[in-house]
Amino acid sequence: MDIPSYISGYVDGEGCFTVSFSPRPTLRRGWEVRPSFSVSQNGDRCEVLQLMKEYFECGAIRPDRSDKTLKYEVRSIRDLMNRIVPHFRTHPLLSGKAKDFERFASICHLVAMGRHLTDSGWREIVTLAIGMNASGRRRFAVERLLEESGPEVIVSATSNGGDT
Amino acid sequence: MDIPSYISGYVDGEGCFTVSFSPRPTLRRGWEVRPSFSVSQNGDRCEVLQLMKEYFECGAIRPDRSDKTLKYEVRSIRDLMNRIVPHFRTHPLLSGKAKDFERFASICHLVAMGRHLTDSGWREIVTLAIGMNASGRRRFAVERLLEESGPEVIVSATSNGGDT
Predict the structure, then answer these.
(1) CATH number of the domain residue A70 falls in
(2) Which residues of B touch A (CB under 8 A)?
């Protein structure tokens, strides 16, 4: 049994690569961009979350909003870049989720380089995020991030986005 | 990347080991017992189902009740015994789902030996199934299978069940 491959299989089914944007008026751009990797599980079957925490040597397990589930989550950009992204390069996801992972990894790279502080980097991040397989609600919210920078940017995002 | 380990990880998150009982008046016991192994997936991300079908060299992929999902399913008791059960012996599940798999494997073994045709074998199968992590609805239906064989059997099932 090869634990790294097992973990990639588990994550291909149950894992989430998320890029969330939160309003932060004190930040230069008015928004905080936060990539995170997470896996949720019923609390009575949390062995795999513990295994992942030990394997990746980072992240935390905490109760999710509902009391019934636990979530293993990695938010630190350093841990994402040093531990999470390299794992899925050597042990890649085999489903269509791999495309989302590639966008996620690019966003992590841009954030780690400080590119989210520049106009072109910010547009690139938002455009990559729009192309990820998010719910309708999330996608709408992400598009607002570009609208607020001026209408001409919306066009740029749409024509470069993953859906066109 | 080790594909068998990846598959065990994926199944630990997304797979189902099911034992269903259907009324069949023409059968000796009035019920058919049918173990099956299945994994469901949104149709737009069905690569892993195809991978499993090729790896296990058995089973079928078909649309689930909803049009949006596909299901990879193995129902043949011979394929379950020869392909599915041995895989999860050499590449075991690491979550609490492993306990359900052990009960499932025991039921497959009993059915393959024809023990479901005997009173003691039938009670053993139903008792094992009751102990599996089923929904309330399913669990109630399984208990009916023993009730209909006479009330003394219910007691036996309860005291040997996984919850006591």
Answers:
(1) 3.10.28.10
(2) 1-14, 41, 44-45, 47-48, 51, 90-92, 94-97
DSSP string of B77-128?
Answer: HHHIIIIIHHHHHHS---STHHHHHHHHHHHHHHHHTTGGGSHHHHHHHHHH
| The predicted structure's pLDDT at residue A152 | 31
Residue in the block written with tokens 């074998």 = B121
Q: What percent of chain A has pLDDT over 70?
A: 80
| Structural domain count of chain B | 1
Task: Select from A74, A80, A77 the least CA-distant residue to A62.
Answer: A74
Query: Are A65 and A57 contacting, i.e. CB atoms less than 8 angstroms apart?
Result: no
Cα A103 to Cα A117: distance, rounded to the nearest angstrom:
18
pLDDT tens-place string over residues A31-83: 888 999 999 887 767 899 999 999 999 999 999 876 678 999 999 999 999 99
Structure tokens at B159: 């005291």
Are B104 and B17 a contacting pair, CB within 8 Å? yes
Q: In Å, how far is B96's CA from the nearest CA of chain A?
A: 5
Domain with B48 in it: 3-160
Residues in A touching B61 (Cβ below 8 Å): none
Interface predicted TM-score of the whole assembly (ipTM), two decimals: 0.82
Compute the distance between CA of residue B94 and CA of residue A160 in angstroms, rounded to an integer.
42
pLDDT of residue B67: 65
